[in-house]
Amino acid sequence: MAVLLLGIVTAAAWYFYSSGYLLYYGDAQAHLNISRSLIDGRQTGYDQLGTVWLPVLHLICLPFAARDYLWESGLAGTIPVGACFVLAGLCLYLCGKDSFGSSLAALTGVLCFALNPNVLYLASIPMTELVFVAGLMVCLLSILWFRRTQHARWIVVAILASWWMSLTRYDGWFLIPFIALFLMAAAQEGKLRVLFVSGALASLAPIYWMAHNWWETGNALDFYNGPYSAAAIQGNRPYPGFHDWPAAIHYYWEAGRVCSGYGLVAVGLLGLLAALFKGRWTGILFLALTPLFYVWSVHSSKTPIHLPSLWPHGYYNSRYGIAVVVLMAFAAGALASALPARIRMLPLLALLPWLLWPSPQNWICWKESQVNSDARRAWTAQAAAYLDSYYRRGDGVLVEFGDLAGIFGKAGIPLKEALHEGSGPAWFVNTMPSGLVAQTKWAIAQKDDWLARRMAEAKAFHVVDVIRVEGAPDLLIYERN
Questions:
Q1: Cα–Cα distances in angstroms (integers) from residue 301 to residues 67, 238, 294, in the given order
Q2: Average pLDDT, stretch 151-156?
Q3: Which residues pair with 479 in a beta bridge?
Q4: Per 3-state DSSP, what percentage of the chain is helix, strand, and coil (rounded to 5)?
Q5: Which helix (H) or strand (E) holds 215?
Q6: Which one, of 143, 149, 72, 124, lies nearest residue 415 by Cα?
Q7: Nearest Cα to 322, choosing from 161, 138, 113?
Q8: How do residues 401-439 score in pLDDT, each as one tens digit?
């Protein structure tokens, strides 16, 4: 099974790499830049982890991001995330086999998951979804095997998987009390001890991250209400589903549907009924918790989902629907187990639409990354070409770390040449309105952003190039006076 999954993700990764799609998501580029900044920068080390994005993805990409080509191409994220895909699929197979008592049914569920093009795209790029799913499936498998064997080591594995999830995505924090409850329900004796011990130990991961936020910013909840949090990014702009439960459910379900495809949704819903009818509800209920978390997030946490089929007809956070793909794929295994052996793999017909129309234009996660990155990729390429012509090693660039950091990877310039907000005191003295300190020869900013306004006030630099791309603010390249 592991060899099959490895072959699938290798073929997918090669396709996305050869097509140049690995860093279409702005977040994918930013994740790799954080990994790289841990070892490459004017100020490296632990503080570069930041406070909003959780650290697991950045740490598992770190050994690969240290290699220039792997960082610049995006393959530094492909390798560890692809390994997480293999682990997730293998555990999904083992969970299906344990739950439904059929290898063929388990294989059916795994193929419905592993051959979904949205899953394969996210398994090939440095994003957190498949890293989280790997922890999710390890945790479910530990619960199932603890119920069957009563060996305490599976409680330990479940807690470790919970830490992995909680330090990958905030969905993991939501799951902690439910993991403890599932372990308690699986225990044949000492139920209350299992509940409190597992819950307390699993909670150490969120406690660590709040302590980390306090250490870095003085605010233990900086990830939630700080200047770079989702709430701060969204601001007071309204969106469908905010404080509206029916709309939140509708928008999230649509995200799950377009990620899964109509075929898998139909098969999965029948599988849900089959699983519940046969009393095989543990895996179904556990995997349904993550979609519930996303509905709650849309409703209460300023986390919008935009889809082309729903107002305001855009692309944003469609990948949250991957949690529905996992649930429906597992349920497809339940349906397969209820069918006669000779037609047990009939639910694989859910994959037929993807095979009949195999275009990336039909893959919502890829399409979102493509639409939202057109302008960024255009000005990144033009800025990198300018620096390639005029920049000399050691000149230094004053820049706000974020989307603009992708220019350095494209131009092959080490991050230690950048002076940004993660560079410590040097950043503050170089951006003082007085302009008395200018330790870099170049600066890059977007028109009307914070750094551009400082450049205008200080007059230590002058604009030497303006890059105009439709749908984005002008990109300004400055040279020191």
A1: 37, 12, 9
A2: 96
A3: 442, 462
A4: 65, 5, 30
A5: helix 204-217
A6: 72
A7: 113
A8: 888 989 998 898 999 999 988 888 888 888 887 777 888
From CA 12, how far away is CA 7, in angstroms rounded? 9
User: If phi over 0 gives left and psi between -120 and 50 gives alpha, with beta otherwise, what is residue 479?
Assistant: beta
**What is the side-by-side strand order in the sheet with 397-399?**
418-419, 397-399, 442-446, 475-480, 461-467
59 by DSSP, 3-state: which? helix
Measured between alpha carbons, how far is 243 from 218 in angstroms, rounded to an integer? 30
- Burial class of residue 44, CB neighbours in 10 A (0-12, 13-18, 19+): middle
Cβ–Cβ < 8 Å for 339, 346: yes
Reported pTM: 0.95
The C-alpha angle 22, 28, 33, rounded to 5 degrees, equals 110
Average pLDDT over residues 386-396: 93
**Mean pLDDT of all residues in the chain?**
94
Model confidence over 298-348: pLDDT tens digits?
Answer: 999 999 999 999 999 999 999 999 999 999 999 999 999 999 888 888 999
Return the pLDDT at 41: 86
Closest CA to 403 of 436, 444, 365: 444
